[in-house]
Design a protein that fits this description.
The protein has about 170 residues and is α+β, with helices and mostly antiparallel strands. Helix content is about 25%, strand content about 40%. Strands 1, 2, 3, 4, 5, 6, 7 and 8 form an eight-stranded mixed sheet that branches. The longest helix has 12 residues. One of its GO terms (cellular component) is cytoplasm. It comes from Acrasis kona. This is Collagen type IV alpha-3-binding protein.
């Protein structure tokens, strides 16, 4: 399980939400916060970007380890007021339940291992000086990954809130 948190001075929940939305379409921007990511797309949106099926691919940065991808559903509970927070959660789809769905068929892994996200999420809430960001993730990487590579990836994922802090405070 990965978890990270940061307090961001002078930022608002709305600013963070807009930045996170921008990372959904701008891979270069996304890689500032998530350097192991090699692609992200919203496969299908059900309610704007508040409820969607998404696909993302990650590299292990190791010659000996296959890249991983995830097909997951995510939901966002948004309060646009700076007095309230936001909760952004998701989990992998059970592909057996959607085997005939074109969304799942058209997003099969190609030369990568399909990993499973038990749960992930962001909680962003106002604090006295700005906002507090908490990120958590529990995933099953699938296949074989050497312990040293897995530990290195765990550290980079847990640093995501700190990278948002650095970006928003500059």
């Amino acid at each position: 399980m990965w978890r990270g948190s940061a307090k961001v001075k002078g930022a608002t929940v709305k600013q963070w939400r807009e930045l996170l939305s921008a990372t959904s379409v701008d891979v270069k921007l996304r890689n500032i916060f998530d350097p192991d990511n090699r692609g992200f797309k919203l496969v299908h949106e059900f309610d704007g970007d508040n409820f969607a099926i998404a696909h993302t691919k990650y590299t292990a940065n190791s010659y000996f380890v296959s890249d991983r991808d995830f097909l997951f559903v995510r939901a966002v509970r948004t309060h646009w007021s700076d007095q309230e927070g936001i909760c952004f959660i998701g989990t992998s789809l059970n592909e057996a339940d959607f085997a005939d769905d074109p969304i799942v068929k058209n997003n099969q892994p190609n030369g990568v291992v399909r990993a499973h996200i038990d749960f992930f999420g962001w909680i962003v809430k106002p604090s006295e000086e700005g906002i507090e960001i908490v990120y958590y993730n529990h995933a099953q990487p699938g296949g074989w990954i050497p312990t040293a590579v897995y530990n290195a990836l765990s550290k980079t994922q847990a640093l995501s809130p700190l990278k948002y802090k650095q970006y928003l405070e500059k």
